[in-house]
Amino acid sequence: MHTERKSGSELFSLNGKPTFGQAFPQAMQHVLAMLVGNITPPMLIASTLSLSAADQIMLTQAAMIIGGITTLLQLYPVFGFGMGLPSVMGVAFAYMPILTMIGNQYGIAAIFGSQLVAGFVSIFIGMFMGKIRRFFPPIVSGTVVLSIGLSLYKTAVTYMGGGSAAQADGSFGSGKFWILALVTLAVTLACSLFGKGYLKVSGMLIGIVAGYAIALGMGGIVDFGQFQEAGWISVPIPFHFGLEFHFDAILMMVLMYVVQAVQTIGDVSSTAMGGFGREATDKELGGAIKGQSICGMIGAVIGGLPTDPYSQNVGLICTTKVVAKKVFLIVGVVMLAAGICPKFGALMTTIPQPVLGGATVTVFAAITMSGIQLLGEQPMNYRNKMIVGIALAIGIGIEAVPDILQFCPQLAKNILGSSLMVSFLIVFLLNIIVPEDNSPAS
Protein backbone atom coordinates (compact mmCIF):
# COMPACT_ATOMS: atom_id res chain seq x y z
CA MET A 1 0.00 0.00 0.00
CA HIS A 2 2.81 2.39 0.92
CA THR A 3 4.62 1.60 -2.36
CA GLU A 4 1.44 2.23 -4.36
CA ARG A 5 0.89 5.64 -2.72
CA LYS A 6 4.49 6.61 -3.30
CA SER A 7 4.32 5.53 -6.94
CA GLY A 8 1.09 7.47 -7.39
CA SER A 9 2.67 10.64 -6.06
CA GLU A 10 5.39 10.28 -8.70
CA LEU A 11 2.80 11.39 -11.29
CA PHE A 12 2.84 14.88 -9.81
CA SER A 13 6.60 15.42 -10.03
CA LEU A 14 8.30 16.48 -13.28
CA ASN A 15 11.05 13.89 -12.88
CA GLY A 16 8.85 11.40 -11.05
CA LYS A 17 8.96 7.74 -11.96
CA PRO A 18 5.41 6.37 -11.87
CA THR A 19 4.81 2.76 -12.90
CA PHE A 20 3.83 2.10 -16.50
CA GLY A 21 0.40 0.99 -15.29
CA GLN A 22 -0.18 4.39 -13.73
CA ALA A 23 1.41 6.48 -16.48
CA PHE A 24 -0.22 4.82 -19.49
CA PRO A 25 -3.89 5.66 -18.67
CA GLN A 26 -2.89 9.27 -18.00
CA ALA A 27 -1.01 9.39 -21.31
CA MET A 28 -3.92 7.93 -23.29
CA GLN A 29 -6.23 10.51 -21.78
CA HIS A 30 -4.02 13.18 -23.35
CA VAL A 31 -3.80 11.32 -26.68
CA LEU A 32 -7.57 10.99 -26.93
CA ALA A 33 -8.09 14.62 -25.94
CA MET A 34 -5.88 15.87 -28.80
CA LEU A 35 -6.45 13.19 -31.44
CA VAL A 36 -9.34 14.67 -33.40
CA GLY A 37 -7.97 18.20 -33.21
CA ASN A 38 -4.67 17.00 -34.64
CA ILE A 39 -5.95 15.04 -37.63
CA THR A 40 -8.79 17.39 -38.62
CA PRO A 41 -6.78 20.34 -40.08
CA PRO A 42 -4.84 18.17 -42.57
CA MET A 43 -8.08 16.46 -43.57
CA LEU A 44 -9.77 19.83 -44.16
CA ILE A 45 -6.80 21.14 -46.14
CA ALA A 46 -6.65 17.97 -48.25
CA SER A 47 -10.35 18.21 -49.05
CA THR A 48 -10.22 21.94 -49.79
CA LEU A 49 -7.31 21.45 -52.21
CA SER A 50 -8.88 18.28 -53.71
CA LEU A 51 -5.83 16.13 -52.95
CA SER A 52 -5.87 12.42 -53.67
CA ALA A 53 -6.92 9.95 -50.97
CA ALA A 54 -3.31 8.75 -50.70
CA ASP A 55 -2.07 12.30 -50.13
CA GLN A 56 -4.78 12.88 -47.53
CA ILE A 57 -3.63 9.77 -45.65
CA MET A 58 -0.02 10.96 -45.84
CA LEU A 59 -0.94 14.39 -44.47
CA THR A 60 -2.79 12.73 -41.59
CA GLN A 61 0.18 10.47 -40.85
CA ALA A 62 2.54 13.45 -40.93
CA ALA A 63 0.29 15.34 -38.50
CA MET A 64 0.66 12.57 -35.92
CA ILE A 65 4.42 12.29 -36.50
CA ILE A 66 5.13 16.01 -36.24
CA GLY A 67 2.87 16.24 -33.18
CA GLY A 68 4.86 13.45 -31.55
CA ILE A 69 8.22 14.96 -32.47
CA THR A 70 7.24 18.41 -31.19
CA THR A 71 5.81 16.99 -27.96
CA LEU A 72 9.05 15.08 -27.28
CA LEU A 73 11.30 18.02 -28.17
CA GLN A 74 9.39 20.30 -25.81
CA LEU A 75 9.79 17.69 -23.08
CA TYR A 76 13.48 17.00 -23.72
CA PRO A 77 15.12 20.19 -25.09
CA VAL A 78 18.07 19.99 -27.48
CA PHE A 79 20.47 22.97 -27.70
CA GLY A 80 17.84 25.32 -26.27
CA PHE A 81 15.08 24.11 -28.61
CA GLY A 82 12.22 23.09 -26.34
CA MET A 83 11.05 24.24 -22.92
CA GLY A 84 11.60 21.19 -20.70
CA LEU A 85 7.99 21.18 -19.47
CA PRO A 86 5.14 18.76 -20.24
CA SER A 87 3.04 19.78 -23.21
CA VAL A 88 1.03 18.04 -25.89
CA MET A 89 1.64 19.59 -29.29
CA GLY A 90 -0.48 19.15 -32.39
CA VAL A 91 -1.39 20.75 -35.71
CA ALA A 92 -2.88 24.18 -35.03
CA PHE A 93 -6.37 25.14 -36.17
CA ALA A 94 -5.32 28.79 -35.96
CA TYR A 95 -3.29 28.50 -39.16
CA MET A 96 -6.25 27.19 -41.17
CA PRO A 97 -7.33 30.48 -42.83
CA ILE A 98 -3.77 31.24 -43.98
CA LEU A 99 -3.08 27.65 -45.10
CA THR A 100 -6.34 27.60 -47.07
CA MET A 101 -5.61 30.93 -48.73
CA ILE A 102 -2.04 29.97 -49.72
CA GLY A 103 -3.17 26.52 -50.88
CA ASN A 104 -5.98 27.89 -53.04
CA GLN A 105 -3.70 30.52 -54.56
CA TYR A 106 -0.50 28.54 -55.15
CA GLY A 107 -1.03 24.91 -54.15
CA ILE A 108 0.17 22.76 -51.26
CA ALA A 109 3.85 23.08 -52.18
CA ALA A 110 3.62 26.80 -51.39
CA ILE A 111 2.16 26.00 -47.96
CA PHE A 112 5.23 23.98 -47.03
CA GLY A 113 7.66 26.38 -48.68
CA SER A 114 6.33 29.33 -46.70
CA GLN A 115 6.20 27.18 -43.55
CA LEU A 116 9.87 26.27 -43.95
CA VAL A 117 10.94 29.92 -44.17
CA ALA A 118 8.54 31.11 -41.46
CA GLY A 119 9.71 28.37 -39.11
CA PHE A 120 13.30 29.53 -39.55
CA VAL A 121 12.35 33.19 -38.95
CA SER A 122 10.33 32.18 -35.90
CA ILE A 123 13.46 30.78 -34.24
CA PHE A 124 14.68 34.38 -33.97
CA ILE A 125 11.27 35.42 -32.66
CA GLY A 126 11.83 32.94 -29.84
CA MET A 127 15.30 34.36 -29.22
CA PHE A 128 14.04 37.95 -28.95
CA MET A 129 10.49 37.42 -27.71
CA GLY A 130 11.22 39.37 -24.55
CA LYS A 131 11.95 42.48 -26.61
CA ILE A 132 9.06 42.29 -29.09
CA ARG A 133 6.38 40.95 -26.76
CA ARG A 134 5.27 44.47 -25.80
CA PHE A 135 4.05 45.04 -29.37
CA PHE A 136 1.47 42.30 -28.93
CA PRO A 137 -0.73 43.24 -25.97
CA PRO A 138 -4.13 41.53 -25.53
CA ILE A 139 -5.84 44.09 -27.77
CA VAL A 140 -3.66 42.95 -30.69
CA SER A 141 -3.48 39.21 -30.01
CA GLY A 142 -7.17 39.12 -29.03
CA THR A 143 -8.26 40.79 -32.27
CA VAL A 144 -6.22 38.32 -34.31
CA VAL A 145 -7.56 35.28 -32.46
CA LEU A 146 -11.12 36.63 -32.78
CA SER A 147 -10.59 37.15 -36.52
CA ILE A 148 -9.26 33.60 -36.87
CA GLY A 149 -12.37 32.16 -35.21
CA LEU A 150 -14.77 34.20 -37.33
CA SER A 151 -13.00 33.31 -40.57
CA LEU A 152 -13.28 29.58 -39.82
CA TYR A 153 -17.08 29.47 -39.54
CA LYS A 154 -17.56 29.21 -43.32
CA THR A 155 -15.36 26.08 -43.32
CA ALA A 156 -17.36 24.45 -40.53
CA VAL A 157 -20.75 25.17 -42.12
CA THR A 158 -19.53 23.97 -45.53
CA TYR A 159 -18.53 20.66 -43.97
CA MET A 160 -21.81 20.42 -42.08
CA GLY A 161 -23.58 20.61 -45.44
CA GLY A 162 -21.51 17.79 -46.94
CA GLY A 163 -18.41 19.57 -48.24
CA SER A 164 -17.24 20.35 -51.76
CA ALA A 165 -18.12 16.87 -53.08
CA ALA A 166 -21.75 17.35 -52.03
CA GLN A 167 -21.76 20.81 -53.62
CA ALA A 168 -20.62 19.22 -56.88
CA ASP A 169 -23.22 16.44 -56.98
CA GLY A 170 -26.13 18.57 -55.76
CA SER A 171 -26.66 16.85 -52.40
CA PHE A 172 -25.23 19.74 -50.35
CA GLY A 173 -27.37 20.53 -47.31
CA SER A 174 -29.49 17.37 -47.59
CA GLY A 175 -31.39 16.05 -44.58
CA LYS A 176 -28.97 13.19 -43.89
CA PHE A 177 -26.05 15.63 -43.68
CA TRP A 178 -27.98 17.88 -41.30
CA ILE A 179 -28.75 14.90 -39.07
CA LEU A 180 -25.11 13.82 -38.92
CA ALA A 181 -23.84 17.34 -38.23
CA LEU A 182 -26.44 18.22 -35.60
CA VAL A 183 -26.18 14.90 -33.72
CA THR A 184 -22.39 15.25 -33.62
CA LEU A 185 -22.71 18.84 -32.42
CA ALA A 186 -25.33 17.95 -29.79
CA VAL A 187 -23.29 15.06 -28.34
CA THR A 188 -20.11 17.17 -28.35
CA LEU A 189 -21.85 20.01 -26.51
CA ALA A 190 -23.56 17.67 -24.05
CA CYS A 191 -20.24 16.11 -23.06
CA SER A 192 -18.42 19.45 -22.90
CA LEU A 193 -21.11 21.28 -20.93
CA PHE A 194 -22.47 18.57 -18.64
CA GLY A 195 -19.67 15.99 -18.50
CA LYS A 196 -16.91 15.81 -15.93
CA GLY A 197 -13.27 14.72 -16.08
CA TYR A 198 -12.40 12.64 -19.11
CA LEU A 199 -15.93 12.92 -20.55
CA LYS A 200 -15.64 16.71 -20.57
CA VAL A 201 -12.24 17.00 -22.27
CA SER A 202 -13.09 14.30 -24.84
CA GLY A 203 -16.44 15.73 -25.91
CA MET A 204 -15.32 16.26 -29.50
CA LEU A 205 -14.03 12.70 -29.84
CA ILE A 206 -17.21 11.22 -28.37
CA GLY A 207 -19.35 13.41 -30.64
CA ILE A 208 -17.50 12.19 -33.72
CA VAL A 209 -17.89 8.55 -32.62
CA ALA A 210 -21.65 9.10 -32.24
CA GLY A 211 -21.97 10.81 -35.63
CA TYR A 212 -19.79 8.14 -37.26
CA ALA A 213 -21.96 5.36 -35.85
CA ILE A 214 -25.09 6.97 -37.31
CA ALA A 215 -23.34 7.42 -40.68
CA LEU A 216 -22.50 3.70 -40.70
CA GLY A 217 -26.17 2.93 -40.06
CA MET A 218 -27.29 5.15 -42.95
CA GLY A 219 -25.15 3.24 -45.46
CA GLY A 220 -23.45 4.62 -48.53
CA ILE A 221 -21.72 7.45 -46.68
CA VAL A 222 -18.63 5.80 -45.18
CA ASP A 223 -16.23 4.30 -47.72
CA PHE A 224 -13.64 1.79 -46.43
CA GLY A 225 -11.95 1.30 -49.80
CA GLN A 226 -8.80 3.28 -48.94
CA PHE A 227 -8.63 1.73 -45.47
CA GLN A 228 -8.59 -1.79 -46.93
CA GLU A 229 -5.88 -0.88 -49.45
CA ALA A 230 -3.63 0.98 -46.96
CA GLY A 231 -0.57 -0.77 -45.54
CA TRP A 232 0.33 -1.26 -41.90
CA ILE A 233 3.74 0.39 -41.74
CA SER A 234 4.99 3.34 -43.75
CA VAL A 235 6.63 6.71 -43.21
CA PRO A 236 5.86 9.97 -45.05
CA ILE A 237 8.16 10.59 -48.01
CA PRO A 238 10.36 13.70 -47.50
CA PHE A 239 9.51 16.52 -49.90
CA HIS A 240 6.61 14.49 -51.31
CA PHE A 241 4.47 17.62 -51.56
CA GLY A 242 7.33 19.78 -52.81
CA LEU A 243 8.38 23.29 -51.77
CA GLU A 244 7.48 26.54 -53.50
CA PHE A 245 8.40 30.02 -52.31
CA HIS A 246 6.18 33.04 -52.87
CA PHE A 247 6.86 36.32 -51.10
CA ASP A 248 3.25 37.07 -50.12
CA ALA A 249 2.70 33.52 -48.85
CA ILE A 250 5.91 33.68 -46.78
CA LEU A 251 4.94 37.08 -45.36
CA MET A 252 1.51 35.84 -44.28
CA MET A 253 2.98 32.71 -42.72
CA VAL A 254 5.64 34.70 -40.84
CA LEU A 255 2.98 37.03 -39.42
CA MET A 256 0.95 33.99 -38.38
CA TYR A 257 3.97 32.48 -36.63
CA VAL A 258 4.43 35.77 -34.73
CA VAL A 259 0.81 35.74 -33.60
CA GLN A 260 1.01 32.06 -32.67
CA ALA A 261 4.18 32.72 -30.65
CA VAL A 262 2.19 35.13 -28.49
CA GLN A 263 -0.52 32.51 -27.99
CA THR A 264 2.10 29.86 -27.17
CA ILE A 265 3.40 32.12 -24.41
CA GLY A 266 -0.08 32.09 -22.91
CA ASP A 267 -0.35 28.29 -23.07
CA VAL A 268 3.12 27.74 -21.60
CA SER A 269 2.42 30.25 -18.84
CA SER A 270 -0.82 28.40 -18.03
CA THR A 271 1.06 25.09 -17.89
CA ALA A 272 3.72 26.46 -15.53
CA MET A 273 1.16 28.08 -13.24
CA GLY A 274 -1.41 25.26 -13.31
CA GLY A 275 1.03 22.36 -13.15
CA PHE A 276 3.83 23.80 -11.01
CA GLY A 277 2.34 26.85 -9.26
CA ARG A 278 4.91 29.27 -10.67
CA GLU A 279 5.51 31.64 -13.56
CA ALA A 280 7.19 30.33 -16.71
CA THR A 281 10.78 31.52 -17.11
CA ASP A 282 12.03 33.47 -20.15
CA LYS A 283 14.19 30.46 -21.02
CA GLU A 284 11.15 28.17 -21.04
CA LEU A 285 9.07 30.60 -23.10
CA GLY A 286 11.84 31.18 -25.64
CA GLY A 287 12.63 27.47 -25.79
CA ALA A 288 8.98 26.61 -26.43
CA ILE A 289 8.81 29.00 -29.39
CA LYS A 290 12.15 27.84 -30.81
CA GLY A 291 11.15 24.19 -30.45
CA GLN A 292 7.84 24.85 -32.16
CA SER A 293 9.67 26.72 -34.93
CA ILE A 294 12.27 24.11 -35.79
CA CYS A 295 9.58 21.44 -35.78
CA GLY A 296 7.67 23.62 -38.24
CA MET A 297 10.70 23.33 -40.52
CA ILE A 298 10.81 19.56 -40.05
CA GLY A 299 7.09 19.42 -40.73
CA ALA A 300 7.55 21.30 -44.01
CA VAL A 301 9.87 18.51 -45.16
CA ILE A 302 7.65 15.56 -44.22
CA GLY A 303 4.21 17.12 -44.78
CA GLY A 304 3.38 18.06 -41.18
CA LEU A 305 1.49 21.33 -40.79
CA PRO A 306 2.42 23.97 -38.12
CA THR A 307 1.90 22.96 -34.49
CA ASP A 308 1.08 24.62 -31.19
CA PRO A 309 0.33 23.52 -27.60
CA TYR A 310 -3.20 22.12 -27.32
CA SER A 311 -5.33 24.10 -24.90
CA GLN A 312 -7.45 21.09 -23.94
CA ASN A 313 -4.29 19.28 -22.85
CA VAL A 314 -3.08 22.35 -20.96
CA GLY A 315 -6.44 22.24 -19.21
CA LEU A 316 -5.91 18.57 -18.37
CA ILE A 317 -2.51 19.33 -16.85
CA CYS A 318 -3.96 22.15 -14.77
CA THR A 319 -6.86 19.97 -13.63
CA THR A 320 -5.07 16.70 -12.85
CA LYS A 321 -1.66 18.21 -11.84
CA VAL A 322 -0.05 15.20 -13.57
CA VAL A 323 3.28 16.52 -14.89
CA ALA A 324 5.61 13.49 -14.87
CA LYS A 325 7.80 13.40 -17.98
CA LYS A 326 7.19 9.66 -18.30
CA VAL A 327 3.50 10.29 -19.00
CA PHE A 328 4.25 12.69 -21.85
CA LEU A 329 7.01 10.49 -23.19
CA ILE A 330 4.35 7.82 -23.68
CA VAL A 331 2.08 10.41 -25.36
CA GLY A 332 4.80 11.28 -27.88
CA VAL A 333 5.65 7.65 -28.60
CA VAL A 334 1.99 6.72 -29.14
CA MET A 335 1.59 9.63 -31.57
CA LEU A 336 4.68 8.56 -33.51
CA ALA A 337 3.43 4.97 -33.66
CA ALA A 338 0.07 6.13 -35.02
CA GLY A 339 1.91 8.31 -37.55
CA ILE A 340 3.82 5.44 -39.16
CA CYS A 341 0.67 3.33 -39.57
CA PRO A 342 -1.17 4.20 -42.82
CA LYS A 343 -4.14 2.12 -41.63
CA PHE A 344 -4.68 4.68 -38.87
CA GLY A 345 -4.55 7.59 -41.30
CA ALA A 346 -6.85 5.81 -43.75
CA LEU A 347 -9.39 5.07 -41.00
CA MET A 348 -9.44 8.74 -40.02
CA THR A 349 -10.18 9.78 -43.61
CA THR A 350 -13.38 7.71 -43.57
CA ILE A 351 -14.99 10.17 -41.14
CA PRO A 352 -17.83 11.88 -43.09
CA GLN A 353 -17.45 15.60 -43.65
CA PRO A 354 -20.77 16.56 -41.95
CA VAL A 355 -19.50 14.78 -38.82
CA LEU A 356 -16.26 16.77 -38.92
CA GLY A 357 -18.24 19.97 -39.47
CA GLY A 358 -20.52 19.35 -36.51
CA ALA A 359 -17.52 18.68 -34.25
CA THR A 360 -15.21 21.45 -35.42
CA VAL A 361 -17.78 24.22 -35.13
CA THR A 362 -17.31 23.90 -31.36
CA VAL A 363 -13.54 24.36 -31.75
CA PHE A 364 -13.99 27.41 -33.96
CA ALA A 365 -16.47 28.86 -31.48
CA ALA A 366 -13.94 28.29 -28.68
CA ILE A 367 -11.26 30.11 -30.70
CA THR A 368 -13.60 33.06 -31.19
CA MET A 369 -14.44 33.23 -27.50
CA SER A 370 -10.75 32.98 -26.61
CA GLY A 371 -10.21 36.11 -28.68
CA ILE A 372 -13.00 37.91 -26.82
CA GLN A 373 -11.53 36.73 -23.52
CA LEU A 374 -8.11 38.10 -24.50
CA LEU A 375 -9.64 41.44 -25.43
CA GLY A 376 -11.23 41.57 -21.99
CA GLU A 377 -7.77 41.67 -20.40
CA GLN A 378 -7.52 45.33 -21.44
CA PRO A 379 -10.17 47.94 -20.59
CA MET A 380 -12.66 48.31 -23.45
CA ASN A 381 -12.59 52.12 -23.40
CA TYR A 382 -13.36 54.25 -26.47
CA ARG A 383 -9.81 53.98 -27.85
CA ASN A 384 -9.59 50.22 -27.61
CA LYS A 385 -13.15 49.60 -28.85
CA MET A 386 -12.56 51.74 -31.93
CA ILE A 387 -9.21 50.11 -32.74
CA VAL A 388 -10.69 46.60 -32.49
CA GLY A 389 -13.91 47.57 -34.26
CA ILE A 390 -12.19 49.27 -37.20
CA ALA A 391 -9.72 46.39 -37.62
CA LEU A 392 -12.49 43.78 -37.71
CA ALA A 393 -14.85 45.88 -39.83
CA ILE A 394 -12.34 46.52 -42.59
CA GLY A 395 -10.81 43.05 -42.46
CA ILE A 396 -14.08 41.12 -42.60
CA GLY A 397 -15.61 43.68 -44.98
CA ILE A 398 -12.85 43.33 -47.59
CA GLU A 399 -13.01 39.54 -47.47
CA ALA A 400 -16.79 39.70 -47.95
CA VAL A 401 -16.46 42.10 -50.94
CA PRO A 402 -13.22 41.00 -52.68
CA ASP A 403 -14.00 43.05 -55.82
CA ILE A 404 -12.95 46.18 -53.93
CA LEU A 405 -9.37 45.03 -54.56
CA GLN A 406 -9.81 44.45 -58.31
CA PHE A 407 -7.47 47.32 -59.26
CA CYS A 408 -4.76 46.34 -56.77
CA PRO A 409 -1.60 44.44 -57.78
CA GLN A 410 -1.86 40.67 -57.33
CA LEU A 411 0.55 40.74 -54.39
CA ALA A 412 -1.69 43.22 -52.54
CA LYS A 413 -4.78 41.17 -53.41
CA ASN A 414 -3.24 38.05 -51.90
CA ILE A 415 -2.31 39.76 -48.65
CA LEU A 416 -5.29 42.08 -48.25
CA GLY A 417 -7.77 39.42 -49.35
CA SER A 418 -7.43 37.76 -45.95
CA SER A 419 -9.52 39.24 -43.15
CA LEU A 420 -6.95 37.89 -40.71
CA MET A 421 -4.04 39.74 -42.32
CA VAL A 422 -5.96 43.01 -42.73
CA SER A 423 -7.26 42.93 -39.16
CA PHE A 424 -3.79 42.13 -37.85
CA LEU A 425 -2.07 44.94 -39.77
CA ILE A 426 -4.68 47.53 -38.78
CA VAL A 427 -4.84 46.66 -35.08
CA PHE A 428 -1.04 46.38 -34.88
CA LEU A 429 -0.43 49.81 -36.48
CA LEU A 430 -3.27 51.63 -34.72
CA ASN A 431 -2.16 50.31 -31.34
CA ILE A 432 1.28 51.81 -31.96
CA ILE A 433 0.07 55.11 -33.47
CA VAL A 434 -2.85 55.98 -31.16
CA PRO A 435 -1.69 57.23 -27.73
CA GLU A 436 -2.07 54.64 -25.00
CA ASP A 437 -5.17 54.97 -22.83
CA ASN A 438 -5.72 52.71 -19.82
CA SER A 439 -8.81 54.51 -18.53
CA PRO A 440 -11.72 52.27 -17.45
CA ALA A 441 -14.17 50.88 -19.98
CA SER A 442 -16.68 53.44 -21.17
UniProtKB/TrEMBL annotation:
The chain crosses the membrane at residues 31-51, 83-102, 108-128, 135-157, 177-194, 201-221, 241-259, 327-349, 355-375, 387-405, 411-434. PROSITE patterns: XANTH_URACIL_PERMASE. Keywords: Membrane, Transmembrane, Transmembrane helix, Transport. It is a multi-pass membrane protein. GO terms for molecular function: xanthine transmembrane transporter activity. InterPro entries: NCS2, Xan_ur_permease. GO terms for cellular component: plasma membrane. Its main location: membrane. It is found in: Membrane. Belongs to the nucleobase:cation symporter-2 (NCS2) (TC 2.A.40) family. PANTHER family: PURINE PERMEASE C1399.01C-RELATED. This is Purine permease. It comes from Candidatus Merdiplasma excrementigallinarum. The lineage of its organism: Bacteria, Bacillati, Bacillota, Clostridia, Lachnospirales.
